[in-house]
Amino acid sequence: MTSKASLLLVEDSDSLAAIYEAYLVNESVTVERVSTGEAAIRQLMKTPPMVMLLDLKLPDMSGMDVLQWMSTQHLNTLVIIITAHGSVDVAVDSMRLGVFDFLEKPFDAGRLQVTVKNALRMNNLQSLVDDYQADVERTSYHGFIGSSLPMQQVYKMIDAVAPSKATVFITGESGTGKEVCAEAIHKQGPRVGKPFIALNCGAIPKDLMESEIFGHVKGAFTGANTDRKGAAAQADSGTLFLDEIGEMDLDLQTKLLRFVQTGRYQKVGGSKEEKVDVRFLCATNRDPWKEVQEGRFREDLYYRLFVVPIHLPPLRDRGRDMLSIASSLLRHYSKEEGKQFKRFSAATAAVLASYDWPGNVRELQNVIRNICVLHDGDEVIANQLPAPLNKQMPDESFELELTENDSEVHEKSAPEHFEAVEMSVVETEEVVPLQPLWITEKQAIERAIEHCGGNIPKAAELLEVSPSTIYRKKQSWEEQELSS
User: Fold this and answer.
1) Count of CB atoms within 10 A of residue 308's CB?
2) Is residue 145 part of a domain?
3) Looking at the predicted structure, is the pLDDT value of residue 227 above 80?
4) pLDDT tens digits, one per residue of 65-112
5) Which entry of 310, 330, 473, 474 is 20 to 30 Å from 400 by CA?
6) In this structure, how many other beta carbons lie within 10 angstroms of the beta carbon of residue 227?
7) What pLDDT is recorded for position 2?
């Protein structure tokens, strides 16, 4: 007999607590209920549950206080916030503290049940990720290039989810590699060697989308001169990846929901029902829940597809990865265009490192290709950079610092090259006089954060620590300053 998962309900209203417990009576969870924040913290210290339903308004403290305490304890409990309409903004802010999802009152049994099931699935996958021990950090992975901490987490999540048939919803800004992620899941899983069919829902006219997915029979519409297989049939026994799924028409979303639920569909103009075995992956560069709230995406389809979310970090949050990718692209496009480029100058690396890359890896590809098409030489110099990077040239003093070590820098590989640029910035800072160690550490971290434009993940990469270490240090400093 399978043991039930533990769920802690933190709700001060007896009547609401009874309703929520009734909603979950047939689910695979054991519900324990407390009515105050203090009781919740005691229970979390004693036996952390897999999932916690947390009301934000409690008689003794705010639910946010409980979340703040949990963030210092590094618990594996997944939190689902229960909130009234007026505190939705607070609930969204709580996502930054690691909240899994939030439920806006009033909600029905189905919404609660689906959200709890998704949290339990995520808990199981996260356990697999935590148990996975990589002896050496990977610098590349199924088409990805990069060894940054955010990408190591993506690689581990793909490792964990690939063997499953669970639907994966990939999110991230345009150009972050969502199709690369989908292919990695396919290649890492048991369906490798079977078809991988990718369909960009944003690039196909709406009146042709149904035919592209399900196919059509001869005579179904003007121009349908023969029967045609759709992506669903082509992906049979393999993987179907629906990119930019938020662009899909609402009427077609209804048909897609049934297809995802049953694996059955009908061709356009056909009367025969067909069945396939497909693993579904989908992606969007939008906020999928916001699309649901604004009526552009069906809520029931969202809950059917949003089983395991994987978020791809933007290039600006990936630290040294940027220059590793740029160097790989430089080698590739130089060979393709018959050019001699082997490296970036130190000043060029500085410009590349300081740019925000709003178009992410796709924009970086375009920049490097532009350089290789229009220029040639042993190294890429800063005045060969196209707009808008040519407007972000380093000032003379910064470039002079780099030039003093130019011969040493040019002999380095791309990742070390980037490190040399970073170190030249650090070395120009004033030497800190003798003082308590925590103050010296505080000043060094604050300089790194300032150098990275306030971006703590970037500063963590520069200092070779995890972002959570910096957050803990900041909290410790506040306590030190209060006690002094």
Assistant:
1) 21
2) no
3) yes
4) 888 888 777 777 889 988 775 555 565 566 666 788 888 888 888 989
5) 330
6) 14
7) 53
CA-nearest of 277, 213, 216 to 249 is 213
Say yes or no: 464 and 403 in one domain. no
Cα–Cα dist 355/378, whole Å: 23
Residue 177 belongs to some domain of the structure: yes
Residue type, 320: R
Pair 386, 462 in one domain: no
Cα–Cα distance between 161 and 122 in angstroms, integer? 10
Domain that holds residue 327: 316-427
Measured CA to CA, the distance from residue 167 to residue 173 in angstroms comes to 20
Which class for 117: exposed (0-12), middle (13-18), buried (19 or more C-beta within 10 A)?
middle
Number of structural domains in the chain: 4
125 CB neighbour count, 10 Å cutoff: 19
CATH number at residue 409: 1.10.8.60
User: Are 209 and 249 within 8 A, CB to CB?
Assistant: yes
- For residue range 141-174, what is the model confidence (pLDDT) as tens digits? 999 999 888 898 899 999 999 999 999 999 999 9
On whether both 395 and 301 belong to a single domain, the answer is: no
If you search the block for the tokens 């305490």, which residue do you land on? Answer: 69
* pLDDT given at position 432: 38
User: Within a domain: residue 141?
Assistant: no
